Automatic annotation (TrEMBL):
<dbReference type="InterPro" id="IPR032808">
    <property type="entry name" value="DoxX"/>
</dbReference>
<feature type="transmembrane region" description="Helical">
    <location>
        <begin position="131"/>
        <end position="150"/>
    </location>
</feature>
<protein>
    <recommendedName>
        <fullName>DoxX family protein</fullName>
    </recommendedName>
</protein>
<feature type="transmembrane region" description="Helical">
    <location>
        <begin position="165"/>
        <end position="186"/>
    </location>
</feature>
<dbReference type="GO" id="GO:0016020">
    <property type="term" value="C:membrane"/>
</dbReference>
<keyword id="KW-0472">Membrane</keyword>
<feature type="transmembrane region" description="Helical">
    <location>
        <begin position="40"/>
        <end position="61"/>
    </location>
</feature>
<feature type="transmembrane region" description="Helical">
    <location>
        <begin position="105"/>
        <end position="124"/>
    </location>
</feature>
<dbReference type="Pfam" id="PF13564">
    <property type="entry name" value="DoxX_2"/>
</dbReference>
<feature type="transmembrane region" description="Helical">
    <location>
        <begin position="73"/>
        <end position="99"/>
    </location>
</feature>
<keyword id="KW-1133">Transmembrane helix</keyword>
<keyword id="KW-0812">Transmembrane</keyword>
């Protein structure tokens, strides 16, 4: 039932977006290819925006589903607020007209969100059914970004002269030097302002310290 309602909502939203996009562009799409491009763009955009909005609401409500997933992956539950708050504005930015630079940020945030979720499940040793969903949503994000219309893109910059190779080498050498310095100056032990005893980072998650080297999860959801 819930799946059917979701499919109907996404289909209706896609049709509505296609109809209203005629007022955003200079006329409606002309030709079969243009209509196909617009349909794929809006379908992928609606899917990503819906997941971002729904996921943000789930995170902010801290429903059991997301709490179990986060605890399983080893993340603190306060992360729900950190990733949940920007997801709803992200959905709005993807759907609203204009503001191309804001859309670039929204696309980047959505992609990193889904790529990070897929990587987390992979590194946790989960089955493919757990990480394939975020991976597909990351692909939809790329499709939406690639097919976005001209009014939703940043203006093309004026062509610039190709910089000499030295301008690429110097930044790379600087970063390499930074990494060497960071490695040489690695801090020893825990931060001085933190106790050596076991410290709880958030509800349901503890971190390892010298006095308790084994990292473990303890939560009402897992006991």
């Amino acid at each position: 039932m819930n799946a059917a309602i979701t499919i109907i909502l996404i289909a209706a939203a896609t049709v509505a977006a296609l109809l209203t996009s005629r007022h955003e562009e200079d006329g409606s799409p002309q030709g079969r290819t243009a209509w196909l491009r617009a349909t794929v763009y809006w379908l992928s955009t609606i899917l990503v925006a819906f997941e971002m909005a729904a996921g943000g609401l789930w995170d902010l409500l801290r429903i059991e589903y997301v709490r179990v997933v986060l605890t399983h992956l080893g993340y603190p539950l306060f992360l729900l607020y950190i990733i949940g708050v920007p997801r709803i504005p992200c959905a709005l930015a993807l759907l609203a007209p204009r503001f191309p630079r804001l859309k670039e940020w929204a696309y980047a945030g959505a992609f990193f969100n889904y790529a990070g979720a897929a990587a987390s499940h992979l590194l946790a040793g989960d089955r493919g059914s757990q990480w394939i969903g975020p991976l597909i949503l990351a692909v939809f994000t790329i499709v939406s970004w690639t097919l976005r219309p001209a009014s939703r893109r940043l203006p093309r910059p004026a062509p610039a002269k190709e910089p000499p190779m030295i301008t690429w080498c110097v930044p790379a050498l600087i970063v390499a030097a930074m990494l060497v310095i960071a490695f040489i100056t690695l801090p020893k032990g825990a931060p001085p302002n933190m106790s050596s005893r076991l410290r709880v980072d958030g509800p349901g998650l503890s971190v390892a310290t010298e006095s308790n080297p084994q990292k473990y999860l303890s939560s009402p959801l897992t006991t």
